[in-house]
Amino acid sequence: MSSKHRFSVWLSVIWIFIWIFFYILRQNFANAQKDFRPQQNLNTGQHAGDTADFDIISSLSWILDQSQKKYQKTFDLQSDSSFQRYLSDETPFSDQSYKPLDLRPIVSHFTYNKSSKFSLRATAGTAFADMAWAFREHFDKSHKIYIASAYRSYGLQNSLLKNWCEEKRCAEPGSSEHQAWLAVDISVANKNGKTLQMTTWSDYYKRMDENAYKYGFHNTYQKWVDVDGKMAEHRHRRFLGIPFATYLHDQNLTIAEYYKKNKF
Predict the structure, then answer these.
(1) With contact defined as beta carbons under 8 Å apart, do 131 and 106 qualify?
(2) What angle do CA 69, 73, 74 make, to 5 degrees?
(3) DSSP per-residue codes, the chain
(4) Residue 111: how many CB atoms within 10 A of its CB?
(5) 86 and 255 in contact (C-beta within 8 Å)?
(6) Taking the model in full, what pTM does it have?
(7) Which end of the chain has less Cβ packing within 10 Å, N or C?
(8) What are the residue boundaries of the structural domains of the chain, listed by start?
């Protein structure tokens, strides 16, 4: 087949796709018109749209809204085994002895302390290792993530709450993201071994806040008790998967806000 003939074939294929795209767009406009049909004013008997053409911006907004709703249906905030499982004192695990089957030690050479002492679910652990590498590279290998804690059992959480941690700071046993094997508490260590906390004004926090979602991690507790149910905990990062973490980041929502907004 000559190059000229191949070009003609590809051009025909492109035109077919363009025609299909505009056909689908036209059908969506038609659906949008039905949903945005002007309502009759009960006082005047006139329609709001009698003197105006259909607004194409409204149509596009409808299409985007419908796409977003379909996308959000992929998030599962209720199943114990879901990466997106929403946990709070009011919404604990259905099975309080829940333990996932895909647990693995975190394998990373880019954390300050030995990562393999801590475990997460396999996908979360791989994502954390990637995040730890990127964090170290950003700070020119002079600073690394320090893992303070990861998994905590029901019994350990119960002990913490009774003997050390106040109610507004620690989750009730059976509702901790640490029990889900999806959460880590982290700080930063420099090359001299000095531990630095994740304070909101630090470059380390800003770096984590602006990039953790790219690896599927979310700061569950950032807007305090009235919004998130617990005090802000800047060192806490919980794995949700990249799609959901990205959605929350882009919408400036915490998982608690999303849960309440969608009335699960």
Answers:
(1) no
(2) 130
(3) --HHHHHHHHHHHHHHHHHHHHHHHHHHHHHHHHHTPPPBPTTT--BTTTTS---HHHHHHHHHHHHHHHHHTT--SSSTT-TT---BTTB--SSTT---S-EEE---SSBSS-GGGSEEEHHHHHHHHHHHHHHHHHTTTSEEEEEEE----HHHHHHHHHHT--TTTSPPTT--TTTTT-EEEEEEEETT--EE---TTSHHHHHHHHHGGGGTEE-SS-S-HHHHSS---TTEEEE--HHHHHHHHHHT--HHHHHHHHT-
(4) 24
(5) yes
(6) 0.72
(7) N
(8) 103-262
Partnered with residue 119 across adjacent β-strands are 105
Class of 103-262 in CATH: alpha beta
Give the model confidence (pLDDT) of 202-248 as tens digits.
Answer: 999 999 999 999 999 999 999 999 999 999 999 999 999 999 999 99
Torsion sign, CA atoms 164, 167, 173, 175:
negative
**Rounded distance between C-alpha atoms, residue 165 and residue 87, angstroms:** 18
Structure tokens at 16: 């077919």
Q: What does each C-alpha distance from 109 to 29, 171, 255 come to in angstroms? A: 53, 31, 30
Tokens encoding 235: 């060192």
Amino acid, res. 224: W
Residue 31, pLDDT score = 55
Map tokens 């659906």 to a residue.
31
The answer to whether residue 149 scores a pLDDT higher than 90 is: yes
Mean pLDDT along residues 62-88: 75
Write 65-74 long-range contacts (CB < 8 A, 24+): 71/243, 71/247, 72/247, 72/262, 74/243
